[in-house]
Each structure stands twice: as C-alpha cells, then as structure tokens.
Amino acid sequence: MNSFAIPQRQTPDAEMLFGFWYRALPSERVRHNRLQKALLLEIPLVIGRDAHGRAFALRDACPHRGMPLSCGAFDGQQLECSYHGWKFEPHSGQCQLIPSLTADQKLRVDRIYARALACAEHDDYIWVFVPEPGPAGAGATRAEEPPVPAPRVPSFSPNYKLAYLSAEMPVNVDHGIIGLMDPAHGPFVHQAWWWRSRHSIHEKQKAFEPIPNGFRMSAHTPSSNSAPYKLLRFYGAAEAITTTIDFVLPNLRSETIRAGKFWFSSLTTVTPITRNRCRIDVVAAWNIFRWLPFGPELLKFVFAKFVEQDRRTMELQAEGLKHDPHLMLIDDADRPAKWYFQLKQAYLDARRTGGEMRHPIPGPVTLKWRS
Ligand code: FES
Ligand SMILES: [Fe+2]
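That is the input. Now the predicted structure with FE2/S2 (inorganic) cluster docked in place:
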C-alpha cells in the first residue's frame, strides 16, 4: 500500500491520548454544592465546586468499595460517600474520616486517597488534566501536577466577549478531529442561502508550517467565501484582515482573525468521551460587535448553524462507518488529516521509547485544493 492512502484501520481503536488537558464541562453546568457527573476518555468523573467556587474533579468511584462519589453528599468542604460515609477533601482526594473506626483502631486515614485530577477553570469551561494511567491495581495518591497550564482562547485586548457551543457526536475522536480540519466539506455541508452555495467553490492555496506538537496555517487573508471574511469586511479593508489557524495535539484548533484593532478568535476542542463518541466544544472570543446589539446573537447563530451541520453530518457518517468500510485520504485536501495521524503516531512512539518526539512535518508546505 502506498503512503498516500491511510485507511481508517491504521488507528483501529481511535487511541485516546493521555497526559493532556481536556475540557470537561461548561462552567455554568457546575453549581455550588452540587455534584455533576462527566465522562472523559472513558473515565467517569465527579465534578463540583467548593464553598469558594473553586472547581475540583475526582474519579467517580470511592476508593473503599467503588460507590460513585457523585451519589454522595457535598457540603462545600467535604465529600461524603453514600455507602459507608467516608469523607474526602475534594481537591486532593485525601480521606479525612472513616466513621466505622473505633478509638483504638490506628488506621492512617490521611494516607487514603480518592483519585483527584488537576482542574482549571477559564473561558467558560472546567478543564481536567488526564494523566497517563498508572500501573493496574495501584492505589491513588495526590493528583499529579500538570507540566503545562490548561490551554486558553487567544485574546488581544482587555475587553472582549465570550460564547461557547457544545455538541456530542457518535464518531470516534479521530473522525471528529479530521472532520474539523477538513477543508473540502465546506461547499457541501455548510451551504445556506445567506452564506454560500456550492457554486462559490474555487481553487485555494494555503501555506502551512510545523509548530510544536502540531501545524499552523500561516497568517493569510481569509477566503472571500469564508465566515470571518464576511463578518469582518464591514470593519476594515479586506486586505488588512489576516487569519491564522493552529492545530495542536491532542485536540486543539485555534483560529485568530485580526483586522486592525478588531479581532476574533476561537478555541475548538474535540474530546473523546468513549471509543466511539466525542464532543466538540467551541469557545469564541471577540471585540468586534461591541456596539451592535445583535452582533453576538448573529455570531452565535452562525456558529450554532455550522456546528449543527457538522454534527448531523457525523451522525450520518457513523451509519456508514458501522461495518468498518475501507477508507482513504487524498492529497492535498486530506493532508492535514494525514499530519494529524502522523503527529499522533509520533507522540505515541516518543512516549513508548522515551525519546524526543520526531515532528512529521519537516518544514513549510503549500497545499492546494478547491473549496
Ligand atoms: S464505598 Fe465509599 S465509603 Fe464505602
Ligand atoms: Fe464543518
């Protein structure tokens, strides 16, 4: 088989990457003193916030006999398991009380931990650092300190607005991600009378370059039939508009569009929930439309429409994928998808061998396609 056709079988189990930050839940879904369940990389979590509003995340299983901690009670300080009443400090997971112990029983309660995960909250989301799974059967200790802070939506001025959208899709994370970076589906999936028709398809040429753990579509003037171009041309000369799009492992796509002092950015993630489900979360930030009362609604409407079109497409695609058909990726339109698989493989190889990650993209590349 030549190297230009990468069938889906190359990543048969849609391997999930551990050792990264992932978006767990939108902030507004986690209320004070209430426990919320979440599933990430097939790990059930219980998420909450303490009396000061600080978020925490624990594996949703009591270290005693496995009762989901989300069934327990939380008073803003301690989480009490509903089965035998063990109490835990929610940020560290440290056990603080075992009610069945008698006065003369000397069990070191403080050495027992429920498994806590590092947690961060910004840009309307709670992020969780999902570490490499420990050796089977090992008990929990304190949460691992993440090597880097959680990702942020790019911003370029002190005042701006934020909005988010979230949708679940019945495909594995790889299909979710390559669907996100795929330039060729636009004219067919994202048609709307007020937007574009498939007749606006034309040849495009874009410069890409490698960046750590990913690749960048270098700063360029957006296509005349793209969303940002249409929104921003009301604000400045079209030539002054530049857009940059980055993809970085495990699942981050950030887009930055700048036109003079106006800017628009987004950080989109595709998070594995299980081996065959993923969730797309888009957070957008902007300082345009601040004086237009309908601006944010318009933007949300456009984004919601796009995300829904992608979600619906992947729902249908999942039907086709059920019986494991042979698939292929073509040049140049699917080259970013190939890079994604190569980056992922390089990351896994480096982890396995303990060596440096070998970047699969040697230098700047220009890709051409019609969309
Ligand atoms: S299972 Fe949680 S206290 Fe026993
Ligand atoms: Fe799309």
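The two ends are 28 Å apart (CA to CA).
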